[in-house]
Amino acid sequence: YGFINTCLKSLVVEKYGEETWEKLRLQAGVQDSFLTFEVYKDEITMKLVDKACKILGVCIPADMVLREFGEYFFEFCKRSGYDHMLRTLGGNLYEFIENLDALHSYLSLSYQAILFSSVFPQEMNAPSFRVEKNEDGSMHLHYYSDRRGLCHIVPGIIGAAALDFFNIEISMEIVNQTEEEERTGKKEHIVFLVTQNPVFSYKERSKFSSSPQYLAGSENETENQLNREELERANNTIRDRGASVCPVKKSHWKTIRGIITLGKGKLLRGFDPVYPKSLWIDTKTFCNGLPFHMVFDKELRVKQAGVSIQKIVPGLQTMGICLDQYFSIVHPEVPFTISSIQKFINSQFVFQTRREMMPESWKQRPMLELRGQMIWMEPLQCMLYLCSPLLRTLHELEERQMHIADIAPHDVTRDLILLNQQRLAEMELSNQLERKKEELRILSKHLEEEKKKTEALLYAMLPQHVANQLKEGKRVEAGEFKECTILFSDVVTFTNICAQCEPIQIVLMLNAMYLRFDRLTTVHDVYKVETIGDAYMVVGGVPVPVPTHAERVANFALGMIIAAKGVQNPVSGNPIQIRVGIHTGPVLAGVVGEKMPRYCLFGDTVNIASRMESHGVPSKIHLSSSAYQCLKYKNFEMTERGEIEVKGKGKMHTYFLIRNKTATESEIMGRP
Known about the structure:
The structure is a single chain. This protein is of the alpha+beta class. The chain has helices at residues 2-16, 18-28, 42-56, 62-87, 93-98, 100-115, 153-166, 202-207, 218-241, 252-262, 283-289, 307-312, 338-343, 394-399, 413-461, 464-471, 494-500, 503-524, 549-564, 604-614, 625-631, 665-669, and strands spanning 128-133, 139-145, 169-179, 188-197, 293-297, 302-305, 327-331, 349-353, 369-377, 382-389, 479-491, 527-532, 535-540, 578-592, 598-602, 621-623, 636-646, 650-660. The strands form three sheets. Strands 11, 12, 13, 14, 15, 16, 17 and 18 form an eight-stranded mixed β-sheet that branches. The chain is elongated and about 130 Å long. The protein starts with a helix and ends with a helix. Its EC number is 4.6.1.2. It is found in: Cytoplasm.
């Protein structure tokens, strides 16, 4: 179920980050999220676990990754609302493990109730646990699972439960690992030796004496020790007061109440049940009161059966018939022998009727399943199977043409069916909400991606801080920049090229050139103002003022000359030639227009930079005197051009930029 995969994702994201999860899921080839009650193939979980062990196993061994997952899974279950259910499984670790299969059985009822009409009506295929006490206080935990290679998760889960619920630390080691031999299903069978680590002192243990918290058998010894101490203190008190206390004969019940008070609410002596000399119930009442029960001997011969099971399986009315002729064992997957049943006697047993042995009216119905416990009766050498019909919903009841009245009034199966019917509707609603939530998450993710694309396009047209102000509906005030460097470039003989070529050839030529120039703006961190025809305009120091504006634009210009050599003239087939002009000075910058807002520069600096380009020389970078002064001591090689007549400006002293003395061509072009 998706719950398991969601837990694994949560662990990776929480402890190793979102990027690690993204890498893991891409390598495993699975989706990003999972619905809690959705059925997923085992292969998905196994791929995730395998990739997690490989990716995270670089830092820690694979078995430790699985153990960490086990510990986290326990905490994840608690956070998901199973805390109270887990705490009430048992009063000590032995009882807790002993009842894990019962918990799985309950959960399979709930999940199966949701999925009985699903496209994937799968049974919840949970692992199985069997625990044995040892004389030294340790335990042998038998773990059975169809999913191989996951046994290291078990110590993580059991260790976390022992520490959280019973305040003990345990160690678990594998003492045997085999293929299944005891059961009919081919399962991995791992045997763990579970021992308690001596971490608490006696005083620390006594704090928790009110609730059993130790491995099997250890709580009784602690209880007796506490009782002895309390009794000793009481005797001392009585001896101290003996002279002043009058001896008064107490009644039997006063004595009992005194013992309970002395033991702070706990009887000092162990509990001994009282049994009647003879059984005060007749056979008929017993078979009617427990309508779904069976008694059978070592040869599986039926000795007794409840009235309801006789009604459904008439063959049971013939005493002495073999039980395995009419039933098969569904859970646990063991051979139908008395020795196998005794070995798993603490497990819940699920029987299923055999279709060929059922009455004709049952041939078209789903087979009936019974669930209950086995009790071995040593004096009679017989096994008692106390069971109830395994029914989850009213739909399953109707399918078998049974009624609530067929189930004994004291049997909680009646309540379970009705409660599950209500819970089914609630969980189906929860499932729908989870699906809608997932759809909204995906839509939100797509929306975020589209938003980023839109922002990238907007930031390509306007400076980022200006674009953000416009998005927020604010007015963008024009700003004055005391000093910046502006560059203009154009293609030599562009008019002649246009006259001799198809329009598409011009577009392709300009696009190839501008793509190279645009990349260089990123390399040298200059701002592209606009392009008009073959003219390309950039500025350094605007919109973000920087002291190195002239060097950035100069390096960009050197890159333009090199990049232009890679663009072919569609007329001659030779590389195109460009003219570049640079000037440094003050400007005013602001946003113009509302329909197609543009970030524009105003001032005489723009005009002079344009004149530097128009009065330039092919494949040369033409500098004004102010630009020259900014680059004079910055490791650039420049030559003097002298005075020239500039249209609208008169005579001006200008220079040519030759190269950067310290930067290589690869550095200028931003190549690795």
